Amino acid sequence: MLPGLANRRKFQDLSEQEILALAISSEEDDARIYRLYAEKLRADFPDSAMIFDGMAEEEDTHRRLLIDLHETQFGSVIPLIRREHVAGFYARRPVWLIEQLGLERMRAEAEAMERDAAAFYLKAAQRSQDTDTRKLLGDLAAAEAGHQNRAGELQEQHLDADTIAAEDRMSKRQFILTWVQPGLAGLMDGSVSTLAPIFATAFATQDTWTTFLVGLAASIGAGISMGFTEAASDDGELSGRGSPIKRGVASGVMTTVGGLGHALPYLIADFWTATTLAIIVVFIELWAIAWIQNKYMETPFFRAAFQVVLGGALVFAAGVLIGSG
């Protein structure tokens, strides 16, 4: 059994007081999440931040209603019970993870949160034997299910079509500048720059293990170098390119991935099998780079493919010639 599971309560074993306490803590957590989203968005997307502020206020209202009911039914001392204390209960994704994925991901997460809360209140209402408790939980289920309508009302209040379009464009641009652009640069560098040392070693030694070690060292070394270079090149304050740490991570990781792609086949003992597979991987990598350039950087696909494939072919040929010399 996984650690901690034995200490969790089953939902059907909770008393009415514990169900109310769970609802109170859940509303408290959701309000805090919405406020964190709002704070994250306030500088660049102030209108969307106001929507999350409004949703947080709705959760505060629900929490106060639940606390009032608890005081009437059970007194002022509320048991400490949270989502992680209940087996199988829905969990919220870490705020820091959702924040990194942009405005659209926050909106989608908020919709999922409301659906989860509505389902919980429906089950809780079915469990309740007290009329007042059952009524409030049912009302809250309806309220959570209707939060999409409330979000729509808040959106109409704070956002017009032009503002939404402008925010979406800004969110997409920020995602490209912070993640896609440095990641693409890293993938191109890792895929192309490591071709020569890997294939030169392969054809010079025809030793797959030595080739793999050279590829591993070249990939990790290039990843570290690209990551630190990207992070140190621009703090993002004036350029608007976002956190240097995020850009450094994107560039470093994708550089390493680009090199490892055609180094890993040399874990195969047979030289020609490994080399054939490595060449296929190189072909896939180069076309993937062209596709990313076309999708996110709006570079015409055949132009991107010609540039990347031609450059890769020249570096590959140089490695083979040097290794065969």
Structure description:
By secondary structure, the protein is mainly α. It folds into two domains: 5-159, Ferritin, core subunit, four-helix bundle (Ferritin), CATH 1.20.1260.10; 168-324, no CATH class. Helix content is 77%, strand content 1%. It contains twelve helices and two strands. It has helices at residues 16-41, 46-74, 95-100, 103-127, 131-145, 147-158, 161-193, 195-205, 208-233, 244-261, 271-296, 301-324; strands at 9-10, 86-87. It has a two-stranded parallel ribbon with strand order 1-2. It starts with 8 loop residues before the first strand and ends with a helix.
In short:
The protein is an all-alpha fold and 325 residues long. It is 77% helix and 1% strand.
What labels describe this entry?
two-stranded parallel ribbon; mainly alpha; Ferritin; 325 residues; 1% strand; 2 strands; 2 domains; 12 helices
What composes the largest sheet? 2 strands, parallel
Output the helix-strand order.
EHHEHHHHHHHHHH
- What's the arrangement of strands in the largest beta sheet? 1-2
Rg, rounded, reads: 27 Å
Mean pLDDT across every amino acid position: 82
Total beta-strand segments: 2
The helix content, as a percent range, equals over 70%
Shape field: elongated
Instruction: Tell me the number of helical segments per DSSP (H or I, 4 or more residues long).
Output: 12
Low-confidence stretches: none
Strand content: under 5%
Q: How many structural domains?
A: 2
Q: Structural class, from secondary structure content?
A: mainly alpha
Compute the separation of the termini in Å.
59 Å
